[in-house]
Amino acid sequence: MKTKIVLSLILLCFLSQNNAHSSDEVSTHFKIALKLNPESQHIYVNANLRLNPDKPLPDTLNFSLHKQFTLLKVAGNGIHDFMFDKEAPPVSVFMREARPLTIILDKNINRNQPLDIVFEYEGAITEWPENSANVVTEDWVELGLYLPWFPSGFICGYFTYEIEAECDPAYQLRSYGSYIKTNGTWHFERTIPDFDIILVASKSLKTMERESGGYRVFFHYESLQDKTAESLSNDLANILDDYATWFGKDKKGEIFTVIQSPRDKGGDYARKGLIVLSGLTDEKYITQHEQFVRNLGHEAAHFWWNMAPAYSWEDWLNESFAEYSVLLMIRKMFGAEAYDKWIADKKATVKNIPPIWGFDRNNTTASEGPDIIEANLYSKGPLLLHQLSSRIGDEAFKRLCHEMVRTCVSSTDSFLSLLEKNHGSETRDWFEDLLKSY
Ligand SMILES: [Zn+2]
């Protein structure tokens, strides 16, 4: 069980990271009106999508939507035709109930201009795979792209969104970060571009909010005692405070959200600044405390470690630094013995794994592909950083990290140059050799 939590989080972490600077651009934006009825599992959506293309739009736009929705409308200037093919095979193994919704554009429209599309659809959503992280039940609603409840498709990259949601007043609704409820309508807004829209509902959701290290931390919880919620919020606040001290404080105002899902199937997942924990109980937060701190601390570390491209081997600069950051945190909270155990466990997983330098980050199809990716990013990289930190000293290592963040180091070459500048060519050559040979 313990391993399962880590694995599911790690796999989804692959999806959650991407280039950190996309928030400066004008993003594609969803404006969604939602009517949710958990009791009948019925969902009505009116979604206005503004596509802001950074390259010319193709002739055909491919979206997907849950097969139980009935499409009421697809409209917009420049739309020639559309088709929602419920008989088609699933669009992805991760989205078994998703069916293709294809939009064909007019030949004559300017493909570089923003395009507005209105989608209207509704349906009772009663089918999802047994291990789905997204469900619609009377007791718990968890909407996200696995269902998928919004027209999902990577047509113009990541997007921002706003939602106005109506629901039986007995229910509490939450999404990322904070929420507003006025005259019975829930308002949510996400201004950091991402690839998912998470919305949860239940009659017993509560929120604990706090500020820490310049961050706003929201914990939405469903079936925990307040004191457990408080101890998790404290842990996260301490982690963010320490990271801010170690790696720099120049990212004020960002939001970190934790959602406790009462699902017992489907696992955990992470998005930018969000983590959804499914296996959390009052008891487990005590008995598996270190594991939960690891999961929270790894995701929190991505506020700092998100500068390198996620789909190349250089992703080790994101993942291995995030993982090593949380090992430093574990040593601080649980002592040297706990840290040594994590190091020993990681050593056991890197045997017969090719070096990090140039490894195939995208090889998820070969049988050993995912194991190599996981071992390199989450075990070998942190082990090399452990060696580096032992060689130059912990304080110097943190100063190096601080400077990496400040100067936005996004490639291994610039990391090695910085290492050489601070610690000489011998240390650089030694570390470069480890990356190429270990
Ligand atoms: Zn990660």
Task: Summarize this structure briefly.
The strands form 4 sheets. A 7-stranded mixed beta sheet has the order 4-7-2-1-10-13-12, with no helix packed on it. A 5-stranded mixed beta sheet has the order 15-16-17-19-18. The chain folds into 3 domains: 126 residues, Neutral Protease, domain 2 (Orthogonal Bundle), CATH 1.10.390; 130 residues, Immunoglobulin-like (Sandwich), CATH 2.60.40; 134 residues, Neutral Protease Domain 2 (Neutral Protease, domain 2, Orthogonal Bundle). It has 9 helices and 19 strands.
What does this 3D model show about the protein?
The protein is α+β, with helices and mostly antiparallel strands and 438 residues long. It folds into three domains: 1-23 and 201-303, Neutral Protease, domain 2; 28-157, Immunoglobulin-like (Sandwich); 305-438, Neutral Protease Domain 2 (Neutral Protease, domain 2, Orthogonal Bundle). The protein has helices at 2-16, 226-247, 282-287, 289-301, 316-334, 336-349, 369-392, 394-406, 412-437; strands at residues 28-37, 42-51, 60-66, 70-75, 79-84, 98-105, 115-124, 135-136, 141-143, 159-167, 172-174, 180-182, 185-194, 199-202, 206-212, 215-221, 255-260, 269-271, 274-277. A seven-stranded mixed sheet has the order 4-7-2-1-10-13-12, with no helix packed on it. It has a five-stranded mixed sheet with strand order 15-16-17-19-18. It starts with a helix and ends with a helix. Zinc ion is lined by residues 13, 298, 302, 319, 322. Zinc ion binds next to helix 5.
